[in-house]
């Protein structure tokens, strides 16, 4: 099987790509290499793909908005499955520059869907976000909860979900949308809460919490997200569906920071700062639908996951930490939801 993974040099995309390659599939990664964070992290992700796949791996640098490039890839490589992970991430970034996420997250997705119809793609997996829920009516969120996004990023992701539904219904392109709940793990973006907390603690600095620390998040370990995605290689029961992918449990940001302190052995206290605009107060996934349709069973809780991440961070500190420390001022919110 040949898969196209858009955004495959990024955190989630590269994990999906390497797992596909390790299972013997062919993979083409399309990534624009946007310097939203240090590109050396993405370059290292691509190295891991090459190591896993050898001549079964191909990297194409370019944008999902490039119609000709997308068509060339699909026409020349017999792609059967598209894992669409490319996106302009960042809730607060979208508030500052709403045009950029619209172009990538909406126009780019539409470009791919049109090409998927033309070339008979047998499965299109779209990465969405818990940011589409926005205002809380009840928790945990099930897929029928109202969607009132509180940021331009969330709006673009919701628009993408509707496009996928229409392409499944009107054009018979088998689409599935997975709504991710705060994914974390090795090689995660350096401007995420767990990364920043870990870096600061290992350097004897206190974690900085924006707000009162009572915000709650459903953090999802990367291996569980990859498992959900790869299950869709075989399952046809999800065609046209939108499915939550979370961990089923929540933790406050304050508890998370204290757990990182405990895991790193740091002798520091917490610091607090003003809350950030557009960050959700709470997220919590109802994954009953994923369990029913995908036999999804999240296996890594937040405490075990943080322990694994801290161990990985220590082992990779020499190359990873300078990139984290260099980008911490880019986005230090404790509550990214993508």
TrEMBL record:
Signal peptide: none annotated. InterPro entries: NAD(P)-bd_dom, NAD(P)-bd_dom_sf. Pfam families: GDP_Man_Dehyd. It comes from the Archaea. CDD domains: UDP_AE_SDR_e (cd05256). Residues 4-308 form the NAD(P)-binding domain. This is SDR family oxidoreductase.
């Amino acid at each position: 099987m040949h898969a196209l993974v858009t955004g495959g040099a990024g955190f989630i995309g590269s994990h999906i790509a390497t797992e596909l390659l390790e299972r013997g599939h062919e993979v083409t990664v399309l990534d624009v290499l946007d310097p939203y964070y240090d590109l050396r992290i993405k370059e290292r992700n691509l190295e891991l793909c090459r190591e896993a796949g050898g001549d079964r791996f191909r990297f194409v640098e370019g944008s999902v908005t490039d119609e000709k490039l997308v068509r060339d890839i699909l026409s020349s490589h017999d792609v059967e499955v598209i894992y669409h992970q490319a996106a302009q991430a960042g809730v607060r970034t979208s508030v500052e520059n709403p045009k950029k996420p619209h172009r990538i997250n909406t126009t780019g997705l539409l470009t791919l869907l049109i090409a998927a119809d033309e070339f008979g793609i047998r499965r299109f997996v779209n990465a969405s976000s818990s940011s589409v829920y926005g205002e809380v009516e009840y928790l945990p969120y099930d897929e029928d909860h109202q969607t009132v996004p509180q940021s331009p990023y969330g709006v673009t992701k919701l628009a993408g979900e509707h496009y996928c539904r229409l392409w499944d219904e009107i054009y018979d392109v088998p689409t599935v949308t997975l709504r991710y709940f705060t994914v974390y793990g090795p090689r995660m973006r350096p401007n995420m809460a767990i990364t920043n907390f870990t870096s600061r603690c290992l350097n004897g600095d206190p974690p900085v919490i924006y707000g009162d620390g009572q915000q709650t998040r459903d953090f999802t370990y990367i291996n569980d997200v990859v498992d959900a995605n790869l299950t869709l290689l075989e399952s046809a029961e999800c065609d046209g569906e939108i499915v939550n992918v979370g961990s089923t449990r929540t933790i406050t940001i304050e508890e998370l920071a204290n757990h990182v302190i405990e895991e790193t052995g740091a002798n520091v206290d917490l610091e607090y700062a003003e809350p950030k605009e557009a960050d959700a107060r709470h997220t919590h996934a109802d994954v009953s639908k994923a369990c029913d349709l995908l036999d999804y069973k999240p296996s890594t809780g937040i405490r075990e996951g943080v322990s694994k991440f801290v161990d990985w961070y220590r082992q990779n500190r020499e190359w990873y930490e300078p990139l984290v420390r260099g980008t911490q001022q880019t986005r230090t919110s404790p509550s990214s939801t993508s």
